[in-house]
Amino acid sequence: MTATIEDRQTMSTGVQPVRFHQVGKAFGQGPKAVVALDQVDLEVAAGEFVCLLGASGCGKTTLLNLVAGLDRPSSGRIEVNSSRPAVVFQEAALMPWLTAAGNVELPLRMAGVPKAQRRAKAAELLELVRLKGLGDKRPHELSGGMRQRVALARALASTTDHTGTGAGKPSLLLMDEPFSALDAITRDVLQGELLRIWRATGTAILFVTHDVREAVRLGQRVVLLSSRPGRVVREWDVDGLTGTPEATAVDEINGALREVISRHAAA
Ligand SMILES: Nc1ncnc2c1ncn2[C@@H]1O[C@H](COP(=O)(O)OP(=O)(O)OP(=O)(O)O)[C@@H](O)[C@H]1O
């Protein structure tokens, strides 16, 4: 089930939104430095859904921050070849004084999209995340799941190229445990919605989680990071697995995750 190099090369034809070449990231210097990532090689193909899995503190958020340009690597090289990557966090982080539609419009406003066009785009995206008719609600009037839907619509607005400068570049969504604060039923519904939206938009997604089931359900590929420092230790091609194959993949990946955690604990 582990993807071969040949498989990876087949998947990686065309423009890749993200490529990591031997990326390292350390916080601080000298003996007290915290090495969060070490020699990470990773790529995401256009339109691909990749789940990044690892134990708490292994550097998953650090890796997403590097892709988003919120931080810089200490070593190695990152190629980001997408129209502006957008991030969805664990908490929706909406502007409380803006309506749902206002929040979705915000990145469009910042990109200089004319008013009528951004209104129409926000309405279209709110419909895509099944919040049609709720655009005038403020965040406090919405449930946690609804707020994450707004955050997803805003991220989609942000990653769409409206200026023409990113023409031809694939879009990329970065998602940092976006459903982990939600109850199990809402999480299940939103996972299904995310798959639908991914298929409808064709955006590439790099999705961080520490939930193996979630990773196998959502991803085409699951990439396992070791415990600190985070390194890619294994990856699995889980595209289209359902039923028993999916359960087998979950067991196998759970075993590998436990192994990297216990190796770290023993170190
Ligand atoms: N700004 C920073 N300064 C110092 N250390 C940091 C900083 N950001 C992250 N770290 C450290 O780097 C390591 C990786 O952190 P990161 O948040 O990327 O892990 P994670 O895998 O996302 O964890 P979790 O699953 O718990 O969210 C941790 O040891 C963390 O303490």
Automatic annotation (TrEMBL):
Q: Which InterPro entries match?
A: AAA+_ATPase, ABC_transporter-like_ATP-bd, ABC_transporter-like_CS, ABC_transporter_ATP-bind, P-loop_NTPase
An MF annotation (GO) of this entry? ATP hydrolysis activity
From the record, give the transmembrane residue ranges: none
Pfam families per UniProt: ABC_tran
Q: Which PROSITE patterns match?
A: ABC_TRANSPORTER_1, ABC_TRANSPORTER_2
Q: Per UniProt, which keywords does this protein have? A: ATP-binding, Nucleotide-binding, Transport
What is the designated name of this protein?
ABC transporter related protein
Q: Which organism is it from?
A: Kribbella flavida (strain DSM 17836 / JCM 10339 / NBRC 14399)
